[in-house]
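Friendly challenge for the regulars: who can give me the structure tokens for this chain first? No prize, just bragging rights.
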Amino acid sequence: MTDKIVPCLWYDGDGEAAAAFYVSLLPDSRIDRVMRAPVDTPSGPADTVLTVEFTLAGQSYLALNGGPQFHFTQAVSFQILTDDQAETDRLWAALIADGGQASDCGWLQDRWGLSWQITPRRLMALTTDPDRDRARRAMTAMMTMQKIDIAALNRAADGAD
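First reply, four minutes later:
Bragging rights claimed.
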């Protein structure tokens, strides 16, 4: 790893599966290194996967198989800025599959409990529009959504809904 700051994500034994899944979702992503424990640790016997270094969209991360003591909360989430509805739909479906849960305003939790915000760039543009009425209408529409619907946001911002 060459980044000075690397987020470490704590898993209960399935960090390698989580990292492999995440890197399948975005370009410029890969598994960089898998480290097996050289000795028994509180999270498992020697030779089990202890850490997985991976790159996700150019950013370094570390998955640590630390055991069942700690769990993710919504206090930390990862925001993915999407370019269109197709990318929004693809990432949303992939991340809620196999036990993930949809939430409000573009938020969800994946099957490991990690929180994500699937955020279309168009949402950001509309909610920061200098025309405060357009921004208000877009934000009001977004507040009623789980997965963000870009066409519905555009209609709301234009006052068509």
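The first strand starts at residue 8 and ends at 11. The domain at 77-157 is CATH 3.10.180.10 (2,3-Dihydroxybiphenyl 1,2-Dioxygenase; domain 1). Your move, everyone else.
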